[in-house]
Amino acid sequence: MGDLEQIELLEEYIEDFGKELKNIKKASDYLKLIEQFQDEVTRTTVILDQSKDNMVVQQEITTAKLSLYQSILQGIEQKQKVLEELQNNTMNDLSGLNQKHDKHMNELKESIQELFNAINENRIVIESLSKDQKEHQSSLFKKLLITVGLFLGLNTALGITIVFMLLNG
Prior knowledge:
Structural class: mainly alpha
Shape: rod-shaped
């Protein structure tokens, strides 16, 4: 019976050896999973390091942009103040020019009225003159009216041009 015990013992060893082989196979499978996990952790670490470097660069870019925007904003605010001052000065200048224009227009009206009065007086004188003189005076009168009309048109156009230039200036 010694052989039978030895065979049973050998079967038991073989069975234990099979169990150990199964445990080694499981350990090998676990080791492969651990190696895969380690590779994934390594790749993730590399990606995180790259992301960290990218974030630092992005933060530097953002800081530079913010600084640029702030300086641009300051420039815009300064220019806006200058524009407001220029606008106020322009409005004051326009107001003064408007007053001068009104004064000149009143003077022009007075001059035109004086001219019309003189023309009317000349007309009365012309009517009292002889026919020959009337024709001559009539010709002069027409020339005078044309001259006055041209003078009036020229002054009006000049006044309008000055106002237009000041407004669009």
